[in-house]
Amino acid sequence: MVTVGELLREWRKRRRMSQLDLALAADVSARHVSLVETGKSRPSADMVLRLAAQLDVPLRDRNRLLFAAGHAPRYRERPLTGCDLEAAHDAVVAVLRAHEPYPALVIDRRWNIVLTNDAVDPFFGDVDPELLKPPVNMVRLGLHPRGLAPKIVNFAQARAVIRARLSRQLAQAWDPELAALYDELLASDAGDDATTVPIESEIAIPMIIRHRGYDLKLFSTITTFGTPQDITLDEIAIESYYPADAQTAEIFRHLDVRATAG
């Protein structure tokens, strides 16, 4: 069984912090950090959480640290659609609906789609039904040749952006399923991801989607819950898409993208 000290050392190295760095951030002695990592001192639950907070450890992994130290898990994982998270669910739905007619969706830590607004649906019209069977994965949907890939005009650029995001995510918190997704769709032909639009000319790297004869130029923003105390809320993000130029904004004002895709 992996000890709490081994887990803390792994997270500390992942965050590129020395024992002294962690000790100063957590307001404890470097010697105490060393004793915990070597198993010579059993940390209290509060100490585990203090160190985990400074290491920016996800809530799911904080529970693992607590268990390894002999303490009960502190954080619950409840379904977003359940009664316990009803207020949070309603808030997320309100954000999605308020963003229409622009697309917005909610993804979990493995990029599985949890919720969408109505503006997303038309873009799935030509997608292979097999890719729309739950859980629908946003990365696979976007990069698969029978998914949205044929609709993405700047596919190589969009693929490069997704690769960078997944790489950062895996560096921050390793996940075997996410790593398998990366290997399946992004690991090969990395050199083929060319940037065709100068980054300095954009407020954000856009995704250009061909829809009903129009080239819709969109950029995305990501919204997360602040200081969540539930694993589900800690791991979801709202991805909202906005028009990246005046032409796309004008098209959205006059085009009902919620109509059946053609």
From TrEMBL:
Signal peptide: none
Pfam families in UniProt: HTH_3 (PF01381), MLTR_LBD (PF17765)
GO molecular function, one term: DNA binding
Matching SUPFAM superfamilies: lambda repressor-like DNA-binding domains
Domain HTH cro/C1-type: 8-62
Domain of life of the native organism: Bacteria
InterPro entries found in the cross-reference section: Cro/C1-type_HTH (IPR001387), Lambda_DNA-bd_dom_sf (IPR010982), MLTR_LBD (IPR041413)
Protein name as annotated: Helix-turn-helix domain-containing protein
Species whose genome carries this gene: Phytoactinopolyspora halotolerans
